[in-house]
Structures are given as structure tokens and as C-alpha cells.
Design goal:
93 residues; alpha+beta; Trna Endonuclease, Chain: A, domain 1; four-stranded mixed β-sheet; 3 helices
């Protein structure tokens, strides 16, 4: 399965929960996560999507640590089976 397919499944699942999975583009700041998930109740998280078995690059790991240090949850998803659990966790935290 391609990363883009997983990304599409995330967007659909977030929408079904009444939220959004917005594509995040940050010119001048490489390595930011692919999507920012916004769910009802002011729930927010960043999501880096990868093809199955792929790992984040070093710069992506650095950005993940920076965002987490600011108090934001950051998830790495490399399979559609992870989407429901991640969104449930975002919704309940």
C-alpha cells in the first residue's frame, strides 16, 4: 500500500469523526509531519505518514521531538490498521 493511500484513509476517517486531517505544508521548515488532525473538542495532533515498514528520516524525527517538547502529540502511521487507534487516542486525550 502506498503512503498516499494511507493518507487518504486518514482524511476520510477524521472526517467521519466530525474533524479534519489537513495537509500540512511548511515552506522553509522541512521535516514537518504530513497532516495535522483536528477533532471536535479542540483535539489536535500531528501525523507523519509512511508506506508500510518505512521509518521517518532523521529530520522528521527531529521535528517530531520538537513538536512533542512543545506539548503536541505526534504519531507515525505506516498502515491503515493504525488509523482508528490513533484517532481514538487523539479524541480521548
Amino acid at each position: 500500500m502506498k503512503e498516499s493511500e494511507i493518507e487518504r484513509h486518514l482524511a476520510v476517517a477524521a472526517k467521519k469523526m466530525g474533524g479534519m486531517a489537513v495537509k500540512l505544508v511548511s515552506p522553509g521548515l522541512d521535516g514537518v509531519p504530513d497532516r495535522i488532525v483536528l477533532l471536535p473538542g479542540r483535539k489536535i495532533a500531528f501525523v507523519e505518514l509512511k508506506a508500510p515498514g518505512r521509518k521517518p528520516r532523521a529530520l522528521q524525527e527531529k521535528r517530531k521531538r520538537q513538536l512533542e517538547a512543545l506539548g503536541f502529540p505526534v504519531y507515525v502511521i505506516d498502515g491503515v490498521e493504525q488509523i482508528g487507534g490513533v484517532l481514538d487516542e487523539v479524541r480521548t486525550t
